[in-house]
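TODO from last week: model Protein-disulfide isomerase.
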Amino acid sequence: MPDASATRKSPIVPLVVAAVALVAVVLTLVTSRGEGSDGPTAAESGTGAAGAQAEGHALDDAWAQLVRGEEGDPMALGDVDAPVVMISYSEFQCPFCGKYARDTEPILVEKYVDSGVLRIEWRDFPYLGPESTTAAQAGRAAAAQGKFWEFSKLMYDNQLPPNSGKLTEDYLVSIADDLDLDTNEFRKDMVARGTKDAIKQDLAEGQAIGVTGTPAFIINGVPVIGAQPTEVFEQAIEKAAEETDADGS
């Protein structure tokens, strides 16, 4: 059984350094492409071909540090070697995360995950209050029994208002029971130190790259912020797949 409560093996400091490098490059790209502008050319910016190549390597290295890419990861969907990876910083109280999960995610799974093009990796970003943290712990407890995505679906299909006071441990255990999970193990995994540490690590990672709210996505190094229309995700995924093919990787 995968231990979803365990922290990842790589130390947090190198990961954060890589994450900061990533967001620096991403922000440069977003700024240069934003507001209808194509941004400065290499010659105008003074970087030249060598500078552009170095920037590309920095982006690739930082992105590689952010992607878990673990076989059998219960909090990921899709092939571990899929050409496109989407990291999703999410939380169970966020209504916009719920909208994405109900309206867009099933389409992306059917169209891109099932065909081997896309891998989705979840990151906990519980920022709306203590109930968010409790729900994140429950998600990892469900993952420890191989039912994270089923748990996620039930949470979003029956989403409670933020900070309603109803998102209690007993409520979350009732969802685990609906999924036929071992509720005794579920309760233990919810409060395990490894579970709490893993959530803190995800939160720190998101904060390090500038995530301030949810949902926030990074698709092969390119940010997509908020519950955008499904078409925005489709265009970003297809563009990333085309670029990967063009690179021959």
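Done. The two ends are 32 Å apart (CA to CA).
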